[in-house]
Specification:
single chain; Jelly Rolls; 18-stranded mixed β-sheet; disordered N terminus
């Protein structure tokens, strides 16, 4: 009787294990984990539904649904998959909405939102059909093998600079009918002296999709309007900051260690 009971229990456990493995292998989505590879100062994370932030030291893992933030005088580096790297400047908050989630079509989807602060990213080539998307409160960007940085101010205004590769950025990322256009050269309007103010005017929101390529920059206001777009140089004052120099140094170190 005891032997029969053991046999039945063994068969039952085996079936449970088989069902579990099968459900994992045929599930609609699976996702990967990222890894914190550098922390200077304070880095914290929390799952999107959690109430409390917890400290995230070097070698901490991050997954889909995590929020990650740095504090004043802090910065951090996250290794996603392979050669894909993102770095957070001080006082930056990001949402890892999806992290290489594999769909039922066996395509990888990554989606990261920058709530505020500044992010530097080095993303390898993206396979056909895969998606690596980055968003801010006023724009969405599709990444296709790029080195870039993006900053988001308190009013949600966004600035994107592409160092290598290209980024498709739109103020209406959910509109599939937009056609990619070459980035225009647009200078911010000069502020003139005092003048009589007329009554309120109806402002039409213009949706757009631009391709930002090597050494090009785009600036978007907090309402999603394009206010500045231009070429930039490594000799610009904005490129001489400690943040930029540190990221370029980290990029070179990673290339040497491949």
């Amino acid at each position: 009787m005891l032997n029969r009971t053991i046999l039945v229990l063994s068969v039952f456990l085996g079936l449970c294990l088989l069902i579990t493995i099968n459900s994992i292998s045929t599930g609609v989505e699976t996702s990967s984990t990222g890894l914190v590879t550098y922390v200077d100062g304070t880095l914290k994370k929390k799952f999107i539904e959690a109430a409390d932030w917890v400290a995230a030291a070097k070698d901490t893992t991050v997954i889909s649904g995590d929020k990650v933030r740095t504090f004043q005088n802090s910065r951090a580096e996250l290794e996603l998959v392979g050669e894909d790297i993102i770095r957070l400047a001080p006082r930056t908050i990001i949402d890892i909405i999806k992290l290489y989630e594999e769909t039922k079509e066996q395509k990888d989807q990554t989606s990261i939102k920058v709530e505020e602060g500044e992010l530097w990213a080095m993303v390898g080539s993206v396979d056909a059909g895969d998606e690596f998307n980055l968003s801010t409160p006023v724009a969405g960007a599709a990444i296709t093998g790029t080195i870039f940085r993006v900053s988001v101010d308190e009013d949600s205004s966004t600035k994107l600079k592409v160092y290598k590769g290209e980024v498709y950025i739109s103020n209406a990322p959910d509109n599939p009918d937009l056609t990619p256009e070459v980035l225009p050269h647009k200078q911010p309007k000069q502020v003139s002296g005092p003048k009589q103010v007329s009554g309120p005017k109806q402002v039409t929101f213009v949706e757009w999709l631009y391709v930002v390529r090597d050494m090009q920059a785009i600036q978007i206001d907090g309402r999603g309007n394009l206010i500045d777009s231009k070429d930039f140089s490594q000799y610009d004052q904005d490129e001489q900051t400690d943040w930029v120099r540190w990221n370029k140094q980290r990029d070179e170190e990673r290339k040497k260690n491949r």
